[in-house]
Fold SUI1 domain-containing protein.
Amino acid sequence: MIFNIDARGHDLFPTVYALWKVPHLLPAFTLKGGEVSRYVIGGADLMFPGISIPPEGFHSFEAGQPWAVKVPGNPAPIAVGITTMSSTEALKAGLRGKALRILHYYRDMLWDSADARYVPNEGFFEDIVVEDPNFVSTSQSPDSAEGTPEVTHESEDAAVDSSDTADPGIHNEATEEITDGINELKLPEDKSAEQAPDEKEHQTLTTEEIDSLLDKCLLQALYTSIKEKDLPMPGSTLWSNHILPCRPPGVTLDIKKSSHKKLSQWLQSKSSSGLISAKEDKYKKEVILLGINRKHPDYMAFKPEKRVQEPVEQEKSVAESSVTKQLEVAEIYKPSSHVKPIFMAVEADMEKYYSALEASDVVFRYVEKENLVKPTDKAKVILDVTLCDALYKGAIKKGSAYPTEIHKKDLGSTLLNRMQVHHKVTRGTQEVIRKGAIRTIQIMTERRQGNKKMTRLSGLECFLMDPDSLASELQKKFACSTTTAELPGKKGQYEVLVQGGVIDDLAKHLVDHYGVPKRYIEVYDKTKR
């Protein structure tokens, strides 16, 4: 029921079997849906985009803490891992990147090593975990941005422990092993006792008071943190990054306890009143904030509260972080003729651009439709003629045999290799999609005439930066001479030349101020040769 990862017993973690007996032993991230569980129980780490954001935001956590993973509507955890960053770092990163390094999951070798190999409820299948049909949550909401289902500890325990009836011998063994190892677990501190007074205070609020508080937080956010350049903005981003930070200290803001019940309905009511303009993205099933009516009577009559702020350095860092969030770089994929039969078989749009996750979901839908999971090894997929041709036709050397099966963890990446790669760069409302993989920004310092240094910067166009504007900005920042020139043989592509060896400072400026990911910046210092 307890395992360690370093063979020395220094860091102990509960298995999923232990968590099925004691569901609240670890704090848990809840996935956006059961379909995401395919990747977790397939061995992938948990990414922030796959996590449902609770209405009150994430509880505070530090890097390296043990957390569990759950599926909405199912109280039984499916995996155990450790956080890769703190909650503060996660918010600064815009809730992107890896949230949890998975150490153990349902159907891995550790789970398989147990004699019983039982499952806790009817929501657990061989390659996916979905909601438990016998588990009823009175406060479940379909809006992922409005948090995960609220359940009592008693109801979760009852739902999970229903397996004891079928396996009576497991309970005694589980209780004994958990008792022996539980005190050695390094768990995050439970702050529920400290938060209890605030929670009780919030529970006394009437529906009208909660509605009033919601409106006040929205107006505060519209005044203080939401700029026109941030629009359009998904409702979930508005809620987690702007509405929740405007709460009074110690107050829990729960949309489900308002008269609107759902975030989408609340935003649509504000749109109907004319304060904002919003519409539902039918593809993403989410309401998008499109505009703000700053001449609305409610907006003009509102007086924003002045928050106590740290010194100017903190204000600057917050401002810079908001600029950083403006730039988003993503590789996207378009179906090619190779994979067309797969996409058409599941009625997927051939003209659409897909993220890696979305494309992988298409091929797994095909596998499920054609029942291609290998009966004797659920981690592998049998290749029928259509799927084999889509993945390998024309790529196998002449005379070599075509494979007859593929591991699930390789299926998605193999499909992506057969699709047309594109890249999408977004800065505020400006978005550009170009064919091919994104090119990196190159910064090179070299010597000119004697001991003078010159720094050359190219590849800006991919990241929606204007060379002339940047040159003017760098001239002031580094107090030096700058100029722009068209790259030889590359029409429409320019480089910025900066006097002096500012290679490191320039790279840092692009990351901090423009939000260019470090992996897309290449630095060459020819002066050290």
The radius of gyration is 27 Å. Confidence is low (pLDDT under 50) at residues 137-172, 181-203, 308-325. The CA atoms of residues 338 and 393 lie 8 Å apart. Residues 441-528 form a domain with the Translation Initiation Factor Eif1 fold (CATH 3.30.780.10).
